[in-house]
């Protein structure tokens, strides 16, 4: 109880509103988010974090590519970005379908993507008016500064496999692999189980693309994995009804998906996106010590079966691949509380928040 009370008081007293300027919006870590926005609502949480940190000048959201075929994925992504005042380039997976989500596994979770698409304003009118994922990737990468882009993958790896296989074209004289080597500084992947196991993003829909990306990713580009074991027990979204603006698509998406009077959901994609933007340098960026850490010093990921199962290989010669864990002393509850700060942000304030540096006592109990 002492920790919960102190956390609430510290957040209330430490959050500062900082007016975002147009100059700040152009700064920050350049990112591309590759999302399966369609079924699970944690993609909404992830895109919310990206948009809020974009408006705070800590991220530069260059584009969103969708790796599921429903037209409602790119339209919902546009509605979310438009809600936060951002006109973000979006690419739709082909062929485009009219599918809507139905939970045929648990028979519990509800569809939200089409509802976001048609009940909130959006900058893109139709999914087929968008570029393909490979076209958008190549366009963004070709004009990016060298070794500047972070790609955040929070879904299936089909688009990344297609990018790796892409050839020189009218967009760039470089192949996809060459563009990645030249322009990407880190790939951050929500996928796999660590140190070993099976996870849905890797094996549920397109395990062949998973294996291709893991095996053919350029060796000079850093890779960080966020496994299913990390976000599965971090249940964010608990107080959205009380804290979100009533017109929030984030609130509505969580209500529609989770249902039964709850807005609580696991946090795989939001945690991955938070790391993809902030890395481990949290103190200088949001004023709180890092809540994530690397679980290894060396080694690399490997695909061990045709179903997408993976295992970490300890190899002291490879030092630019990592998998994530919560930092020492950080609890699932405290991580969820931080994520909720982003979900509940009101874009009508035209401002952003930064955490003040919290007291040594807070760091101790965190």
UniProtKB/TrEMBL annotation:
SUPFAM superfamilies: Nucleoside hydrolase (SSF53590)
Keyword entries, A-Z: Signal
Family annotation (Pfam families): IU_nuc_hydro
Family to which this protein belongs: Belongs to the IUNH family.
Domain Inosine/uridine-preferring nucleoside hydrolase per the UniProt entry, residue ranges: 31-219
Cleaved signal peptide residues: 1-20
InterPro entries: Inosine/uridine_hydrolase_dom, Ribo_hydro-like
GO molecular function: hydrolase activity, hydrolyzing N-glycosyl compounds
PANTHER family listed in its UniProt record: INOSINE_URIDINE-PREFERRING NUCLEOSIDE HYDROLASE DOMAIN-CONTAINING PROTEIN, PTHR43264
Protein name, entry field: Inosine/uridine-preferring nucleoside hydrolase domain-containing protein
Organism: Trichoderma harzianum CBS 226.95
Residues spanning the membrane: none
């Amino acid at each position: 109880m002492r920790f919960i009370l102190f956390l609430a008081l510290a957040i209330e007293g430490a959050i500062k509103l900082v007016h975002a300027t147009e100059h700040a919006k152009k700064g920050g870590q350049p990112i591309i988010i590759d999302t399966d926005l369609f079924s699970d609502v944690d993609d909404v949480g992830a895109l919310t974090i990206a948009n809020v940190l974009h408006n705070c000048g800590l991220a530069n959201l260059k584009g969103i590519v969708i790796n599921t075929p429903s037209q409602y994925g790119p339209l919902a992504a546009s509605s979310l970005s438009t809600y936060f005042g951002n006109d973000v380039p979006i690419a739709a997976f082909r062929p485009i379908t009219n599918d809507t989500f139905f939970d045929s596994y648990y028979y519990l979770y509800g569809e939200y993507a089409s509802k976001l698409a048609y009940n909130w304003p959006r900058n893109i009118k139709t999914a087929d008016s968008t570029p393909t994922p490979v076209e958008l990737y190549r366009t963004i990468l070709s004009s990016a500064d060298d070794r500047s882009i972070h790609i955040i993958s929070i879904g299936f790896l089909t688009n990344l496999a297609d990018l790796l296989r892409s050839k020189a074209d009218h967009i760039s004289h470089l192949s996809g692999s060459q563009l990645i080597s030249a322009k990407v500084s880190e790939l951050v992947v929500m996928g796999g189980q660590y140190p070993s196991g099976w996870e849905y993003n890797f094996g549920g829909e397109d395990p062949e693309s998973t294996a291709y990306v893991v095996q053919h990713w350029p060796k000079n580009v850093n890779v960080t994995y966020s496994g299913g074991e990390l976000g599965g027990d971090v249940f964010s979204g608990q107080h959205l009804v009380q804290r979100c603006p009533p017109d929030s698509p984030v609130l509505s998406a969580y209500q529609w998906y989770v249902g039964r009077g709850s807005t609580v959901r696991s946090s795989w994609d939001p945690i991955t996106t938070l790391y993809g933007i902030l890395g481990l340098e949290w103190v200088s960026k949001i004023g709180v010590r890092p809540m994530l850490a690397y679980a290894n010093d060396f080694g690399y990921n490997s695909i061990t079966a045709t179903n997408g199962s993976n295992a970490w290989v300890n190899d002291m010669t490879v030092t630019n691949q990592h998998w994530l864990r919560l930092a020492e002393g950080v609890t699932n509850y405290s991580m969820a509380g931080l994520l909720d700060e982003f979900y509940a942000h009101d874009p009508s304030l035209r401002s952003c928040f930064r955490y003040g540096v919290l007291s040594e006592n807070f760091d101790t109990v965190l």
